[in-house]
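Replying to the earlier thread about multi-chain prediction with a worked example.

Input:
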Amino acid sequence: MAKESSDRIELLQGTLDMLILRTLLSGPAHGHQIAKHIQRTTEDVLQVEHGSLYPALHRLERRHWVSSKWEKAKDRNREFKYYRLTPEGKRRLVVEESKWKQLANAIARVMWPAKESR
Amino acid sequence: MRWRRRKREEDLDRELRAHLDLETEDQRDSGLPFVEARYAAQRAFGNATLIGEDTRAVWGWTSLERLGQDLRYALRIMRKSPAFTATAVLSLALGIGANTAIFTLIDRLLLNMLPVRNPHELTQLMRVEAGRADNSFSYPVVHALDSRRDVFSGVCGFTWATFNVGSTDTVARVGGAWVTGAYYETLGVTPVLGRLLARDDDRRGAAPAAVISYGYWERRYGRDPQVVGTIIRIEGQPVPIVGVSPAGFSGANVGFVADITLPVAALTRIMPERAALLETEPQWLRALARPRPGLSRTQLKARLDVLWPQMASAAVTVNMEPDRRRVPLSSSIDVSPGGTGWSPLRGQFRQPLLLLMSVAGLVLLIACANVANLLLARATARRREIALRFAIGSGRGRIIRQLLTESVLLSSIAAAFGVAIAWLAGRFLVNLLSSGRREAMVDFDLAPDWHILAFTSAVALGTGILFGLVPALRATVAAPGPALKDDTRTSAGSRTKLAPALVVLQLALSLVLLVGTGLLVRTLRNLQQLDAGFRHEGVLLMNVDARRAGFEGPRLAVLYRELLDRLQHLPGVQSASLSTNTPLSGAKHGGRVSVDKQPQPGTAQFNAVTPGYFRTLRTPLLLGRDFTLQDGPGAPPVAIVNEQLVRQYLPHGNPLGRHVAVDSEMEIVGIVKDAIADDLREPPPPAVYRPYFQRPHEIGNATFEVYAMGALAQVAGALKDELRAVLPQAPVQYQVKTLTEQVERSLAQERMLATLATGFGLLALLLAAVGLYGLLAYTVGRRTGEIGIRMALGARQRDVQWLVLAGALRLAAMGIAVGLPAAWAASRLVSSMLFGLTPTDALTTLAATTVLAMTALLAGYLPARRASRVEPMAALKYE
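Result:
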């Protein structure tokens, strides 16, 4: 079950793209799987409205970072739209990741200066 | 484009549904009943509509999809306001049509390349003698140039002509050309059928051969493939058709279709009386050359400067007097681009057409101002719509683009109509052009081609942006807040300054055109009413050449005398005469004169006339006597001269009894008033008249002048009957026309300018009046409340009317203040075309100003009446 809303954190602008790319690194997935994966791995901390995935997915596809294809699921007789990472998307993920690290470090330096100076 | 979008929509829908289904399943797995599971799934998903919207926003629109949207919307808007659309399209269509029509003529006459191989290589040759360039060459000189293979691939000479084709009963006049043998090879034209003329066809004694045009082959022979070998009768002589030239090629004489082309050498057989044209002296062929490959036009000129003096001997003969021999020997050859062929119409109509192009441009500008004003008015009405679009998040660029799409669509529709108008008007324009030619055979292919369509599209796009941009910018600066409130009656400020400015601009431009029109119309009237020294009313001219029928010298004189006698006794004929030249016929004959054995520095015009010539043309005899039939071959040679000759060469003493010599001495027996010779704009030159029958061996072709009362058509018929009576079965060339026609033809350029300028001037005035009316009607509508209050406070109907009319006059006054200086500045451009008045002619200016003011009052009348009928109570209640 979902945690109480007060414990959940709004996703930072732009990070959703990175999370999606990272999720797809382990293999193709459709929208619902991506949503579930993010939800599960963050232990429900990050609040991702499932719907908001779709504009992001379409945006990534338009930038050619992911590609999509309707395919039949292995476990059921129904077609889903599977997204997979393109080589360009992989490169992009590296860039996003390093940017994110820089940002996190910068924030850390401001928040806990004592630790850093020692 | 649209199906791809729909597919994407369906795709998204399917994707989102699949997600919801999966989530619902997950929720049910955790034990919820279906309805609640679905509900939970939806909650987890978020606002599906919004997400769909966001996703679609990510897709974006391709520019083409946007254009499609804009166009669909623009069409819907146009359909919603048909009156606006019709007014705008009509005024633009007239403006664009006028421009397209004039451009079509300019393109056909001045810009079009001949449909030949590499037309840009073709070079026109010109003789420069004593500093004056002339484009005519003699037949031997063209041949001499053509033989210079070191500089030319070929040089050809050509001239347009008309031929009598067919046997006696079915003679038709067909446009044609005389060309030298190198003509087709130099131009680089290949036959569709048979062969074209070659150098061998143009040798003395060669069998005559004719090439017909594709058009003639189609019209006359129904494209019969067996036409080669057919014998046609040209001037009574049998000539075989040897080939058909390709479609689209109708000779190098632009504007004059040559359906039958003959080699010059055939002249000796077909028109033996003109065999002298093959000699050295007559300069009658235009020359086009193709330089040797690799030789530029500048290099060619340099080579010719060296080469020509060595070969100029081809231009002289031993019998020439030393004086006259020197002229060609010291001449040079000049070159200019010749890819557009040659046309006598160019010299005559180049300047007028360029002038008319700028006039048409002004008309279009006025039309644009009109449509801009309509758009401004409508933008005011559409403020709420635009504000709403802003409010729901449209960008300004997007709205401007939408508004511009609307105006360009408007101008494009107008352009389509404009092309149609130009096509219809084209015939009329060509007729105006050809009314100046002796043979009305001027023809152009006026069907719109890519030149025309490209021009019109550019004009449409340009005008669409021109009249649409300012209103669009205006319409989109407004903040949505106030505009959304219903305050259209008070917040229409954006229109209040720009609209009157546009109307003033329209009025000013109209005034410029009106002044120009007035100047050109009065020039035409001045020329028509000029005292030419002769009267053209009631005079018929009959041109006869009986030499073809085998008459020569004294026998010809007897024949002409008999015919003249018969004509004089026809019912209704007041007087008849015979002469070699007639006024404004285009032909002239002149040269040096000596007076009392003293050679004179200047020249004089010569004419041979029979007794009664001056009576027929009603040129007053001022002194002495007219010729009589006694002034024959045996009698002492006599002459009549005009006042100008006396003024110039015999200023002192009694001119009667003195002697004037043209090629032999003649005693002056009479003096006549000066009469215009070959140009209405030129003052009459000195003239010497001699008795027609005094030198029978010089008689050749002749023009009979007949001054008759009553219906001229009837008299013309009688003239032909008399000609048939004296020459029963001979193939004579003759032509009957009125002297009035001949005079009018010499005014073709002036008439074309005056006619078209009047048309454009009225169009401009009408457009400006519509613009003014629209503005006033709009103002009255807005000021209904104010007018109601004025009337409630005691203003009379007349006061209210005056209020509106004064507004109209104020705008007109501003238009005049701006327009008059502009008109004066612009009229300098036409000063060279004026006759008998200055560009700042006071009467013309006054008339144009008055017409403009009257039009302004007329345009103000309806709104003024509407204003005066405002019911004060109704107006105030509405407020």
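Chain B touches chain A through 24 residues (CB under 8 Å).

Feel free to reuse this layout for your own posts.
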